[in-house]
Amino acid sequence: QGEADEGWVRWPAEFVQRYQDAGYWGDQTLDGLLREWARRFGPATALVSGAERISYAALDEAVDDLSAGLASLGIGPGDHLVVHLPNRAEFVTVLFALMRLGAIGVMALPAHRRVEIEHFARLSGAVGYVVADRHGGFDYRELAREVVDAVPSVRHVLVAGDPGPGSGRGVFTGLAELAAAGRSARLAATSGAAGVGREPGDIALLLISGGTTGKPKLIPRTHRDYAYNARASAQVCGLTADDVYLVALPAAHNFPLACPGILGAFGVGATVVMASASSPDVVFDLIARERVTVTAAVPPLARLWVEAAGWEGPDTTSLRLVQVGGAKLDEGLAQRIPPTLGARVQQVFGMAEGLLNFTRLDDPDEIVFTSQGRPLAEADEIRVLDGSGRPVAPGQVGELWTRGPYTIRGYYRAAEHNTTVFGADGFFRTGDLVRQLPTGHLVVEGRVKDVINRGGENVSAGELEEHLLTHPAIALAAVVGLPDPDVGESVCAAVVPVAGGAVRLKEIKNYLRDRGLARFMLPDRLAVVGEFPYTAVGKIDKRELRRRLEQ
Ligand code: J2J
């Protein structure tokens, strides 16, 4: 079927055959898998959220109840709902209940606001919007009222917690009431007819692209490709039923959702613990109380934990693995993680579009600290190309293109954009600059667009940042281009100094020159800031930083 019909691009038949034959793709949907997990791990604890502890069997039942409740509202196969929930149990029940109906969740992150949510709702033609009552000092029901008014297709607002006064308008429904109604309906009926006609090759959910340029794209992930993604990631992490996985990043992000995250943990009968916030106090308490063994962080968060651990001396004795990804982890920070948090580090270079790279548990320290891992699957095809599409010499930096059993062939409803980021052969242009080591591991050297053009000289922001971070007075660094009347763009180094640290442009330039940097690589300006802006998942937000610096 063509893109115009469905709004997304399926894998060509030849590849379907290939990935099925090689055992990557199974014949179950994700909610079908939940049923199987409930049979296999029944009484084991699947999910811990606040004071709630939910077994695998109870989770599967809760999903049935909620899906029956959703069906009673008329929600069914092919419907889209924007899911905008913080890390709490309902995130999991909603995700699976939608899948059980053949409905599709659009995985918004808690930090998204009106502009993004309306964009997701319009683009997907969402019939519903699922929110929490309040979280992190924000009332999502107020946002929901604005979204309902602005996007006519949104007929249902489903609220985790108190549906509030808005429920009087008939649009707002509490998830708990809905599940209770669904339960009664289920007990009265003889069979549940939910989820008719779903196939493992259909869309299970839509993820949000992490790109910080342009409007976020929707990423269609199918049941079978996402199931592989989670299962293989769990294997790489050596996950077993004895593991306890802490969701510290927003659950709707690909990393904590399926790499291995929630879905990978469920697949082996492990326990998933939801952290309502990612701050060191909350996270350290949960690690000690629940004996957490594995968690995932973006580098700024990992830095926060490492620094706080130095002060607080938390009990992290249970922790065995800290995955770090989402942005480049600098070597210095990577090395501090094992001694301060008492766990091994795993670098993960992933993307919601698919391709995942992991350092392996048995990789030498040198590789673990300095590379961003190697592809998950044998069938992941990797090309490192120069600007004119030719392969670079081995070990040289180039742009990463990829194709494989869990990498999408096109964004959702983005036919035009797709022609620019997907090759005719189906390869996805990641926009990341990498070099590949002889071992197959990739080192991320920056983003294609994150190159500053100063009068024809190309300055790689990533490269300059790495040099800046080696300076003892610099805690964080982000290099951006600022408009300049003479040279087009000037190179601005924004830095957060270490506590009590002082930095000046002249001294920094001397320092960089002494490290052997070319003159053209030196920053023109230095902006000393107290704090960087962050994206919804916690990466440094360069677009916003640039905007602030321009003012
Ligand atoms: C440098 N850049 C990285 C890394 C991602 C696991 C981990 C991360 C994501 C993710 C993910 C990087 N070093 N280790 O989905 O499952 C940058 C790249 C990439 C983009 C993708 C997962 N890890 N990046 O971050 O879709 O530029 O996914 O293309 O949010 O983040 O962003 P996103």
Task: Report what the structure shows.
The protein is an alpha/beta fold. Helix content is 35%, strand content 25%. The longest helix is centred in the N-terminal third of the chain and has 17 residues, at 56-72. 48% of the residues are buried. The protein has a nine-stranded mixed beta sheet, with helices on both faces. A seven-stranded mixed beta sheet has the order 9-8-5-3-4-10-11, sandwiched between helices. Bound molecules: ligand J2J.
List keywords for this structure.
binds ligand J2J, nine-stranded mixed sheet, 27 strands, alpha/beta, 551 residues
Number of helices: 19
* Structural shape: globular
Overall residue-averaged pLDDT value: 94
Strand order of the largest sheet: 2-1-13-12-14-15-16-17-18
Radius of gyration: 23 Å
Strand content: 15-25%
Number of strands: 27
**Ligands and ions found:** ligand J2J
Our measurement of the CA-to-CA distance between the termini, rounded to an integer number of angstroms, reads 48 Å
Report the sheet with the most strands, covering strand number, pairing sense and barrel closure.
Answer: 9 strands, mixed
Structural class: alpha/beta
Classify the helix fraction into a percent range.
25-40%
Runs in which pLDDT lies below 50 for 5 or more consecutive residues are none
